[in-house]
Specification:
The protein has 79 residues and is α+β, with helices and mostly antiparallel strands. Strands 1-2 form a two-stranded antiparallel sheet.
């Protein structure tokens, strides 16, 4: 797929085709990382990294499930 770099202020811009953006999960205003490796330019979406604290903050009494029985120990589990 060919594209053309065009002037945008003092910079250059390349538009991502909708199909490529959709396949990569990039939307308008999505953060992307631009990496230069030799003569290659790599554009990749920035995925939000969730911390354990932020995940646990969403646990409530209403959405917590009961303990799941997994059977008797079969190896060297600590009980």
């Amino acid at each position: 797929m060919l594209a053309k770099a065009q002037k945008w202020g003092n910079s250059l811009a390349v538009r991502l085709p909708k199909t490529v953006a959709d396949e990569c999960g990039i939307e308008a205003d999505s953060p992307v990382e631009i990496i230069r490796e030799g003569d290659l330019i790599i554009i990749k979406p920035v995925r939000k990294r969730l911390s354990l604290e932020s995940l646990l903050a969403g646990v409530t009494q209403e959405n917590m499930h009961a303990e799941v029985p997994t059977g008797k120990p079969v190896g060297k589990e600590i009980w």
